[in-house]
Known about the structure:
This protein is of the alpha/beta class. It has helices at residues 41-44, 63-75, 115-136, 166-176, 190-196, 218-236, 346-361, 398-401, 419-436, 444-447; strands spanning 54-59, 80-85, 101-102, 154-155, 159-162, 186-188, 207-210, 214-216, 244-249, 265-268, 287-297, 312-313, 318-323, 326-330, 334-335, 371-382, 385-386, 389-390, 393-396, 409-413. The protein has 10 helices and 20 strands. The strands form 5 sheets. The chain has a 6-stranded mixed beta sheet. Strand 13 (318-323) and strand 14 (326-330) form a beta hairpin. Residues 1-50 and 137-150 have low confidence and may be disordered. Residues 56-432 form the FAD dependent oxidoreductase domain.
Amino acid sequence: MMPLSPITQTPIPTMLPWQPKILMTRIRKPISLPVVSSPSFSVRSSFSLCDRPLRYAVLGAGFAGLSVVWHLLQHSIKDLWIDIYDEVGIGGGASGVSGGLLHPYSPKVKLLWLGEDCWKESLKLLSVAEAAACSREFNLETRKIAQGSDSFLVRRRGILRPAVSLKNMDVMNDNSQNCLASCRIESIDKDAAQNLVPNLCVPLNLAFYMPEAVNVHPKSYLEALYSACEILVRNMSTSSSGRKVLCLHKKSVGNLLELAGEYDAVIVCLGARTAFLPELSGRLPLRTCRGVLAHLQLPDDSGEHYPEHGPSILSDAWLAVQGPQNLHLGSTWEWNSRNYSPDVSSDEASKAMDELIPKASAIFPGIKSWAFAGARAGLRAMPPLTFHGSLPLLGCIDDFVGGNHGGKFWLFTGLGSRGLLYHGWLGKIMAQAVLSCDETLIPPELTSWKKKQ
């Protein structure tokens, strides 16, 4: 009988602690992500009938899906087999093309609903991903994670939001006084703001600086988080936490019922693509919204560069700085689109630039010197507005699938434009609910959408 060997054995790295003083974690060598084929009978049969592992399917390999996978592995004390299904692979959807600006505040710098918990758990997952990246430096020849000299995992330069509206200035000032100690908001004047970003336009002589806020490279982060899951599986193979298997299938799932007989639980983390499943189509309070972000570069002969320690910028358009001569500019909002292709036509890119450049130049006039270098797009799943803001949709969806499934089908979607903030904490809660088969572990604010269906 073939012994259990879910992942090719490599030396087990030591997980590194959170390092807040590191300014940037670079990915030094491109590597490619292996896709594991469907489990073979010989491997599957290494579990005897009496100790059959729990088998879970996670649909989606973006922020939500990989967070759930990580926490399922961490919290399960039993033998566990996890299959991830995503037709475009790790970070191939909207998560992989998000802006990557991570902080726990609204546009009026108000702390978001349970923002402290979300912020804390997101930092924990960033730490996990950085540890995986640093420990092996992604030097496996079979992996490809990022390209270009400005590739990084986390850029720690803070985020700056200039005040642009007299109407909201007093509210923003009040909100900024109630910031987290772990993500401070400093009210600064024009001179201080321009010390951070020369020639920045600060029309009201006021800007809000979040020095602990970070800029995450989403694709690189998700690849590293998946690698961390692999490392965890290997570590657990010699522990008392039960045997673990993790498989990635680069394929789509046509409907949920086709998985009913094979899995103990199915967790749907497909973002906007959730609405394309026949059991859920037209039944969720979600709106889709396509967003285009542009990649801009400074020409090598321009003699200019973005300040080495300069923060990213939030305004009517955001600037996510990738390096001294690279930045991402976003984002457009095309409501009710069903186009989830990341590819952007020349016409769509031109329209996006026509919309974004005037917004960006109102705050950062120097953007006009930067050249267009490409564009990507993602289809967001936007949840409805509630008393607590726009909150993701979580819960057991057995009733949507039909029949008595005993807590088999679960939903985690509607992260909107805040997937990076919400994914860590909500992924942890979702994993605990699935493992316990107990929906009451999920805050009622996140399951209340079901009562309206």
